[in-house]
Design a protein that fits this description.
mainly alpha, 156 residues, globular, 79% helix
């Protein structure tokens, strides 16, 4: 039985979240490499939109986790919103100001790198409340790949 303060994850759930997590890396890697190789703006737009989707999902997961805890911490609720909105704001600003597209793209990639690193750190450090065996290492791997994809495009 699950309680509001303890999360128990079964073997089947562990296999499922591992499969989904690693499968979720595919769009990051494919679109980043395609942009590096091809240079077509389409690849960057696909990468960016997927990045925003996953960032929103991750931040929303934090929100839900706090609400379900029974004693939501205001700081965590606000932080989840700040992280999601920072990524969206960087993207929206870049889409509406084309005076220096490279600088704006770089700003978005840097903001998202920081956002994903922050969420990864919060999960890996145990602040998310998830204590499943191997979860921290799993999240660390995902975070490293996602941040590296963003930085790869940042330095491209």
């Amino acid at each position: 039985m699950r309680t509001s303060t303890e999360t128990v994850i079964t073997t089947t759930e562990t296999e499922t979240y591992h499969w989904l997590g690693y499968a979720g890396l595919v769009p990051f890697v494919v679109t980043a490499l395609a942009f590096i190789i091809d240079g077509a703006t389409l690849w960057f737009h696909l990468f960016s939109s997927y990045s925003l989707l996953i960032m929103s999902f991750m931040a929303g997961s934090w929100w839900g986790s706090e609400i379900r805890s029974g004693a939501p911490r205001l700081g965590w609720l606000v932080l989840s919103n700040i992280i999601a909105l920072a990524g969206w704001a960087a993207f929206a600003y870049g889409m509406t100001h084309d005076t220096n597209p490279r600088a704006l793209v770089s700003a978005f990639l840097l903001v998202q790198s920081i956002n994903f690193a922050a969420l990864g750190w919060l999960d890996v450090s145990g602040r998310s409340g998830l204590k499943a065996a191997g979860y921290a290492l799993f999240r660390l791997r995902l975070t490293i790949v996602v941040v590296l994809c963003h930085l790869l495009l940042f330095f491209a």
